Amino acid sequence: MKFPAQTRTRDYWGYLFILPSFLILLVCYLIPMVMDVFFSFTSYNVIQPPRFVGVRNYIQMANNRYLGIALRNTVVYTIIVVPAQTVISLAFAVILARVCNNKWGRFVRSSLFIPVITSMVLVGLIWRIFLATDGGMINYFLGILNINPINWLGRKNTSMISICLVAIWKSVGYFLVIFFAGVMDIPRVLYEAAVVDGANGFQKMMKITLPMLKPVTYLVVTLGTIWSFQVFDLVYVMTGGGPGFATSTLVLNIYNTAFKEFRLGLASAISLFLLLIIFLISYLQKKGFRED
Amino acid sequence: MRGKTSTYLVSLLFVVPVFFAIFPFVVMALTSLTQRTTFNLRFSPRDFSLANYIAIFRNFNFLGYFKNSLIVVICACVLNNLIASMAGYSFAKKRFPFRKQLFWIYMLTIMIPGQAITVPLYIIMTKLGLLNTYVVLFLPIINAFGVFLTKQFIEAVPDDLLEAARIDGCGEFLLYFRIVVPLIKPVLVSLTIFTFITSWNDFIWPLITTNESAMYTLTLGLSLLQSNYTTNYGLVMAGTTITFLPPFIVYLVLQRQFVEGIALSGVKG
User: Cα-flanking dihedrals φ and ψ of residue A52, to 5°?
Assistant: First the structure.
């Protein structure tokens, strides 16, 4: 038995229940997004009131060599990290699900998850020490193989790749868990039917596993890209953007512009740029995955 | 895979990634007990001492950092559970005007990349006079993801149950606390773990919003340790070990919920 009239009067309680979260989202997400737009047209250093400067910040952005380097580095980082972590975690997930879906497999997943729960700062710190030129763990092992010590984080061509490898090392376990859940969700019947039709392992992989994992792969690639574009902690701790500007990234550039140079207007413009890039990437990936 | 031998062989190959995942943390813990400046595989019990840990607590305010992190984590977890599940309940069970539009706005905020709104959020917090407070550290941790998560679960709660409680004269808040909250405990555990990890590991936000060392969190204190004492590996490793342990212990205890909770965060996209 229903009480429509009574229920309707009570329904305005709904507003009261969402009020606290709405206020927080308003202050911490919605207003800042609008402010990004507003401050991007101003010159502002927190102490003096913001001054309207038109599109000056955008012109500066377009001509800023360091921002260009940071953008290029961020793209390079993303292009290395996202495909690598996606392929490795996918391969691990499929093999673990098919071959060792047992206690050992669970232990493997649990172990690979340990880097995931640790902070980027911690990971950056310990790897910075492991990668030290003199007395670092990596060079110690290379020394055993008679390879001369390498200045991993101090040289232009090795610093970025070192950071990428650490990032991949940290996140494989995370995407593995997502992929593993995806593989386990594929109905067994599909494989049984394929066996009846005489399909081999490779065909099952190409015709069943990969197509069925498409939504999960979309999720992993999109999340991976969004997070890669926001890389900061690892770079800040491991190299501080150096040597020179070899590992400076977009968010590091925003951080330095806002909190080292106190040019918050310009930093807002770069933030808005980052926001648009990420929205665009999410949109394009969604479209790309839907089409094929 | 054909045959048992190849199955065993493939299983055995996973020793390599497991080694890569665990070994650095083992080295971290061992190094933290030594006074070494270079890496060496030979660890003898004679090298080990707690000197670095004593130094880190005595000479640096690590106890204070630890306390700050703990307060921020507890506040973030309690508030996020409470506020998110209240909204989740409302969106799942209440029928009020503009419900759909409001939920759409909530989902929009999930898509906003945090780092892109850090600067204006910093300006807001400065104007509100909240820099160097606990509030500024835990407030932005609360987000719409928890609302989305709890809404999914509360939708499965039968309407008749809520209706029966109402007929018995149960008030709206009591209904939420006494009936809804106990029913969604598993998802609240997942949300707690997720919030715990996010707030414990948060870095750029504390870095920007605290400049008094009395307010530093553990992650922030850690980063300062390295900038001043880069070559004192044992000391830095003692700091990282201390920071590593709380999430790791929680992980060992609540492993299943942990992995599920983090995997659920994948729904975020």
Answer: -70, 125
Q: Are residues A9 and A114 in the same domain?
A: no
- Contact (CB, 8 A) for B231 and B37: yes
Range of the domain at A212: 65-123+170-291
> Do A220 and A90 share a domain, yes or no?
yes
Quick check: A191 contacting B, CB < 8 Å?
Answer: no
B225-264 residues touching A, CB cutoff 8 A:
226, 233, 236-237, 239-240, 243-244, 247-248, 251, 255, 258-259, 262-263
Interface predicted TM-score (ipTM) of this complex, two decimals: 0.88
* Residue whose C-alpha is closest to residue A137's, from A173, A161, A117, A166: A166
Instruction: Count Cα atoms within 13 angstroms, Cβ side, for B123.
Output: 26
Q: Is B222 helix (H, G, I), strand (E, B) or coil?
A: helix
Regarding pTM above 0.80, the answer is yes
CB-based contact, A280 to chain B, within 8 Å: no
Residue A101 shares a structural domain with residue A13: no
Q: Distance (Å) from the C-alpha of residue A27 to the closest C-alpha of chain B? A: 8
Instruction: Give the start-to-end residue ranges of the domains of chain B.
Output: 72-219+248-268
As a CATH number, domain B72-219+248-268 is 1.10.3720.10
Q: How confident is the model at residue B26 (pLDDT cuts 50, 70, 90)?
A: very high
- Specify the number of domains making up chain A: 2
**Considering the domain boundaries, does residue A44 fall inside one?**
yes
Give the 3-state secondary structure of residue A32: helix
Can you tell me the distance from the alpha carbon of A288 to that of A268, in angstroms, rounded to the nearest whole number?
A: 30
d(CA B115, CA B203): 11
Distance CA B172, CA B183 (A): 16
φ, ψ of residue A27 to 5 degrees: the values are -75, -40
Same domain, A37 and A80: no
CA atoms within 13 A on the CB side of A156: 4
Are A150 and A158 contacting, i.e. CB atoms less than 8 angstroms apart? yes
Mean local confidence (pLDDT), B31-57 = 84
Is residue A9 over pLDDT 90? no
Residues composing chain B: 269
Sign of the C-alpha dihedral computed for residues B5, B10, B12 and B13 taken in this order? positive
SS (H, E, C) B14-59: CHHHHHHHHHHHHHHHHHCCCCCCCCCCCCCHHHCCCHHHHHHHHH
In sequence order, what DSSP letters do the residues of A200-258 get, joined into one string? -HHHHIIIIIHHHTHHHHHHHHHHHHHHHHT--HHHHHHTTT-STTTT--HHHHHHHHH
Q: Is A233 on the interface with B (CB under 8 A)?
A: yes
CB contact under 8 A, B28 and A126: yes
Report the residue of chain A nearest B147, measured CA to CA.
A21
**Are A29 and A79 part of one and the same domain?**
no
B110-127 residue pLDDT tens = 888 888 899 999 999 999
| pLDDT level of residue A192 (50, 70, 90 thresholds) | confident
